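In the current project phase, our protein records have gained a structure token line. A sample record follows, to show the layout:
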Amino acid sequence: MWITSSLTTVKTPTSVALGNFDGVHRGHQQVIEPILTDASGIRFGTDERISPPNSQHSTVVTFRPHPREFFTGEHRSLLTPLEEKITVLRSLGVEQLVLLPFNEAVANLTPEGFVRSILVNQLQVERISVGQDFCFGRHRSGTAVDLQTIAAQYQIPVEIVPLHLCEGERISSSAIREALSSGDLERANRLLGRPYLLVGQVVQGQQLGRTIGFPTANLKLPSEKFVPRTGVYSVWVSCPTVTSGQMIRGVMNIGYRPTVEGKQQTIEVHLLDWSGDLYGQTLSVSLDSFLRPEQKFASLDELKAQIQKDCAAAQMTLATTNLPG
């Protein structure tokens, strides 16, 4: 997948899906699907042929930084930091990701100016897909219908994708954040269409776990990664360089380790039925279920006893779930 932040290096002509796509959840995937084609030029999920085949580069256009972060100056946590987003988009078959720099000039473009300057002149777009609630242009004054009307002046078709529902609930990044914040992994993963993922490097911690018989990998996440509710989770863990792609069962704790008066939040993963040196390695941790909230114990012996129970609960839970992927 070609990735660029410069409109001068974009591969054209393009077929574009517009949006921020944080999470690349099931609703986002519905917006992206109309721009995807197979090798023969058949549009994804249909019999419609894009002629000539492969003449349009399937392109996701997103904004960096997020417009809300640009206007407020406030740090925004992300369900999918850039590297994760790239991985998911690549797996969907997207050919190109354009990280459009969101600056004062872009923020001040009228809807007409955005279509003319960015989409037509720079991206040479030949078809567009957006969600029903897409807004663009100065003060978010342009709607999806406005985009359709303006683009029609250039004979560019715009597909407006209806809001996607899952069991009657609208799928949105904010709903997924809400579910993760409350520990409702079943809901979060259902809305995402896959397990929520934490990807980080194993760094040295206090090594308390190994002293009580439960060595853990201390995970350092990207600073912008959205972290779920504190507590204990059953997880699937992979590390291509160590486990050869094999998914390992595990227990993860997110929290402040109140039993030992911890001050900073840590993310610690204990691998079940596996041992080895993971320092410096990158782990991908797929969250399966929320087991219990974080709690403070009166002694390390009580903590050890609870961890044994957590491991047993995780083994039981993971034995009844399918491997992610």
